[in-house]
């Protein structure tokens, strides 16, 4: 027989165990992973870091190719489509129900659970090629900005007509070395501070570019503009203008690309309130802030430089003075792109590492985490994983080498925009939303969604053709590893 005292003791032990289990569960989300702590502001910072990138610097050139009417309209249309389809995608974070369903931890997983295996494979190919291309594009852009600082100082000392020529390659190598160290940040959940700093930097250089453009306009030095943009004449054939317009569509599309990492951003949010509702607010904040900056940078830049706006507003030397302010803007660009590089590379890193962990779950090389204490008092701890160390280092080296071979700013941006905008920002979110909501074929809602799909596909095809034509011309006269003008 069990005594009353023993019964009370066992009851206390059980209650203590239940309390401990409740405490343990309080630290975990519904998927038994560590509780997420993200909110609308951290998500907005990630979005702004991802969107306001190198693309903002080409918007004056893009508006110059299209003119006031088509340029401003294109910016607004891409903004509206991006916001709408991003909200559709936010509802696909959980399946089948957007509030209580199972979590999808990546864009590809959302596609797989909503559209099936074939679409999953197609999405993976497009997404990871696009993300890798973005990383290469950011490496190119950051090196151009670093070289622009050196050029700016040279022009200030020797005059604006001085033959200041510098190679971008040392800067790409230096950036690659830095990114090797930063790539050891384990995952998206540890990137919040880097994203906030990068977002602040993006505001910094966009504001400087915008301010310099406005100052040039107010001083009466603005150049001639037109409703239709760059005009056909002796120096420009109708065919070349068409190609340039197509490339401008690609540049503007690139400037709004962030959907391929939206699910990963949403996976950092707290589960209450519902992630899709918080993400919709973050989308609204991110896209609205971005569009405001884009409109001002594109329009002020076009008004300042006219139909011959440079391809890169801060590194194309439309502005020479004050040289220190141009230098500061380019420093902001570099710091921002260092953070954006990590935001876009994390899904690529995670894809291979997750596959390796599933394939070799007992391998110490793949799954082992080794702690290193940092500092004199050994207060800080840093974890090293050998797969993460070797694979991410190799990836950064390959991206750097490819960037050194292909330094074509505007044409690369246009091609990346054409490659990624339609399938990742428009097609897959719309198809997943249709599948999740079981929208009937040929209903008014279905027809409206497919109309958006078709229009964006046609724009993407035009942008791809324009960018390929521009790249072919650039490649025909390019010599690898030469000193840049």
Radius of gyration over C-alpha positions, nearest whole angstrom: 25 Å
CATH level 3 topology: Amino acid/polyamine transporter I
Q: Please identify the top-level CATH class.
A: Mainly Alpha
Number of strands: 4
Q: Report helical residue fraction.
A: 55-70%
Number of domains: 1
The CATH homologous superfamily is named Amino acid/polyamine transporter I
Largest sheet: 2 strands, antiparallel
The low-confidence parts are: 18-24
State the helix count.
Answer: 15
Strand order of the largest sheet: 1-2
Structural class: mainly alpha
Transmembrane segments: 40-61, 68-90, 128-149, 194-215, 282-303, 323-344, 389-406, 412-430, 451-471
Pfam families: Aa_trans
Protein name: Amino acid transporter transmembrane domain-containing protein
Family: Belongs to the amino acid/polyamine transporter 2 family. Amino acid/auxin permease (AAAP) (TC 2.A.18.2) subfamily.
């Amino acid at each position: 027989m069990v005594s009353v005292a023993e019964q009370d003791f066992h009851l206390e032990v059980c209650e203590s165990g239940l309390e401990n289990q409740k405490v343990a569960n309080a630290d975990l989300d519904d998927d038994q992973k560590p509780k997420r702590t993200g909110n609308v502001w951290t998500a907005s910072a990630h979005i702004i870091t991802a969107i306001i990138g190198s693309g903002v610097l080409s918007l004056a050139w893009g508006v110059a190719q299209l003119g006031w009417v088509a340029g401003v309209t294109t910016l607004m249309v891409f903004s509206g489509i991006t916001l709408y389809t991003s909200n559709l995608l936010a509802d696909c974070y959980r399946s089948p129900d957007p509030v209580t369903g199972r979590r999808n931890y990546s864009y590809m997983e959302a596609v797989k659970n909503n559209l099936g295996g074939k679409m999953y494979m197609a999405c993976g190919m497009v997404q990871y090629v696009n993300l890798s291309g973005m990383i290469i594009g950011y490496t190119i852009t950051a090196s151009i900005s670093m070289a622009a600082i050196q050029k700016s100082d040279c022009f200030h000392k020797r005059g604006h007509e001085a033959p200041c020529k510098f190679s971008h390659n040392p800067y790409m190598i230096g950036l690659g070395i830095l990114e090797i160290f930063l790539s050891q940040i384990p995952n998206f959940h540890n990137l919040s501070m880097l994203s906030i700093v990068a977002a602040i930097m993006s505001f910094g250089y966009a504001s400087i570019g915008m301010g310099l453009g406005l100052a040039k306009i107010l001083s009466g030095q603005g150049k001639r503009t037109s409703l239709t943009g760059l005009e056909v004449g002796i120096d420009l054939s109708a065919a070349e203008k068409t190609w340039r317009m197509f490339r401008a569509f690609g540049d503007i599309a690139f400037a709004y690309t962030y959907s391929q990492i939206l699910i990963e951003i949403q996976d950092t949010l707290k589960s209450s309130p519902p992630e899709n509702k918080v993400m919709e607010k973050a989308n609204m904040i991110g896209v609205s802030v971005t569009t405001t900056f884009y409109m001002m940078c594109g329009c002020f830049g076009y008004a300042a430089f006219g139909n011959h706006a440079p391809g890169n507003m801060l590194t194309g030397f439309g502005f020479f003075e004050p040289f220190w302010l141009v230098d500061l803007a380019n420093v902001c660009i570099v710091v921002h792109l260092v953070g954006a590089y990590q935001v876009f590379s994390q899904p690529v890193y995670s894809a291979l590492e997750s596959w390796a962990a599933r394939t070799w779950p007992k391998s110490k090389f793949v799954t082992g985490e080794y702690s290193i204490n940092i500092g004199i008092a050994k207060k800080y701890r840093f974890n090293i994983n050998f797969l993460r160390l070797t694979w991410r280092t190799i990836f950064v080296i390959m991206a750097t080498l490819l960037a050194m071979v292909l330094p074509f700013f505007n044409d690369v941006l246009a091609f990346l925009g054409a490659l990624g905008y339609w399938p990742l920002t428009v097609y897959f979110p719309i198809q997943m939303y249709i599948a999740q909501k079981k929208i009937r074929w040929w209903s008014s809602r279905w027809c409206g969604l497919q109309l958006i799909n078709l229009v964006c596909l046609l724009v993407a095809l035009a942008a791809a053709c324009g960018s390929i034509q521009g790249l072919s011309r650039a490649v025909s006269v390019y010599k690898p590893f030469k000193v840049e003008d």
